[in-house]
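Late entry, evening session. Most of the bench is empty. Finally got around to the prediction I had been postponing all week. Sequence below, unchanged from the version circulated by S.P.
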Amino acid sequence: MPSLKMFSAILMIPLMWTLVSGETPIRQCAYESYPLPLMVQIDDCNSSPCDLLKGSEAKIDIQFVATRNTMKALTAEVHLTSLGVTIPYDLESSRGTVCSNLLHGAYCPLDAGEDVTYQLLLPVGNSQPEVPTRLEVRLLDSDNDNRVVACFLADTRVKKPSST
């Protein structure tokens, strides 16, 4: 039977590598005490910079861990930095309300240690300049003085969609 175990292990290694390598590369926010999410996936991007296509919505899945019990009011805050200028990105409340955009049947209130995934649909306007842009996303606990639950930076670039 050792050969069956060895064969199973050989098959699992590439599968595990595929799951691990499919994530979007992210960096720690400026304040290193802010927790990183467990995983971030921006569209199908697995290398930097990630392309954000004008006139579309970037789908950003953010897997994070709740930091306290009965978390029921979480919001997303987005900042974009281009050419050295950082601006807050105004999200519609329906998109920025974390609890109403949780995936896989999760719902609020969340309990400490609960692992959930929030889906942020980020509109990319046609008027956004086509330049490299640093994306910063913070998930805030609105009922706890807007403490940061998760924060990450990702390198992106705004582009026109390819015409096919």
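Two things to note before I forget:
The first strand starts at residue 39 and ends at 42.
Helices lie at 2-21, 93-96.
Will write this up properly tomorrow.
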